[in-house]
Write a structure and sequence with these properties.
mainly beta; Toastrack_DUF4097; DUF4097 domain-containing protein; 1 helix; 29-stranded mixed sheet
Length: 306
């Protein structure tokens, strides 16, 4: 195992040296580690007009993906010609696929294939994006349902309006959601921060293993948030209905615009409600239907409510 690791490391060093010489001379823009060897990457830029789109399906192995609205409906992409990206439209569905991708690319001009989809500002039925390695950005899109899966890369969602569900599954990377809405939000994150600002979700189910979770200036109904390690913040937001927040390790800070009934339990940590300290637990019932339960194994809990 050690010998194999040394050989692999040596190959990487050699590849970087060759790449540096090639980049300096301007002969190539990048090299890739593929099929146990280094290959030159010959990037090709392509553009295709797309019309009559009601559904978007994107499934790629390694690329940065952008989906946004614009005047002209088109697909633009840059990829290695040895591993082409396929774009086609069938029965109102835009399909973007790339079955192969390079695990390691070195370059100074371009190091990651890119896909940019621009569509008119019309409501779509479904938006499905699956990306193994690379960032995903979705901006100013209206649709019924959206499912986004990212294994390793950041996810940025802005001004996205969904009449039904938004489902996000991410292994490694940060998630940013701004000025968006959906009937139901589901997020499963293994490692990375989740930041949500000025959003509205009738129901939100969040599962985070490692990373901070922050909601700011949002309207949330029936929030269920489960975290293993990281700080949780719900700030200047409305919590309606029955909500439950639980954490294993990390602080919890809540500030709501509305009155809520509270039940707080923490095994190791301080509890402060509206500026007053309590020893490990707190409970306050309310005649309203808004109820928040907080459980924290190790960490402080601070809550400010109206």
């Amino acid at each position: 195992m050690k010998k194999r690791t040394m050989i692999y490391s040596a190959l990487v060093v050699v590849g970087l040296i060759i790449a540096g010489i090639s980049f300096s001379s301007g002969t190539i823009s990048a090299i890739a580690w593929h099929n146990h060897r280094f290959e030159t990457v010959d990037y090709v830029k392509e553009t295709k007009k797309v019309t009559g789109i009601h559904n978007v399906n994107i499934a790629v192995k390694s690329a940065d993906v952008v989906l946004e609205t614009g005047v002209e409906a088109k697909a633009e992409w840059t990829a290695d010609k040895n591993h082409p990206i396929k774009v086609d439209v069938s029965n109102g569905t835009l399909n973007v696929t790339a079955e192969k991708g390079d695990a390691m690319i070195f370059g100074i001009i371009e190091t990651t294939p890119t896909i940019k989809i621009t569509l008119p500002k019309e409501k779509l039925e479904t938006v499905n994006i699956m990306n193994t390695y690379g960032d995903v950005s979705v901006t100013d899109i209206k649709a019924k349902v959206s499912v986004i899966q990212v294994k390793s890369g950041d996810l940025d969602i802005a001004a996205v309006k969904l009449t039904d569900d938004l489902t996000i599954t991410q292994t490694y990377g940060d998630i940013q959601i701004d000025n968006s809405s959906a009937k139901q939000l589901r997020i499963t994150s293994e490692s990375g921060d989740i930041d949500s600002t000025k959003n509205a979700f009738n129901e939100a189910q969040i599962s985070s293993r490692y990373g901070d979770v922050t909601f700011k200036e949002s309207d949330l109904t029936a929030l269920t948030l489960e975290a293993s390690s990281g700080d949780i913040k719900v700030l200047n937001s409305v919590l309606a209905g029955v909500s439950h927040i639980s954490n294993q390790y990390g602080d919890i800070k809540i500030s709501t615009k509305n009155a809520v009934g509270l039940t707080i339990d923490t095994a190791y940590g301080d509890v402060k409600v509206n500026g007053k300290n309590y020893n490990g637990s707190y409970q306050k019932t309310t005649t309203k239907n808004n109820q928040l339960t907080i459980e924290n194994k190790s960490g402080d809990v601070k809550v400010d409510t109206n």
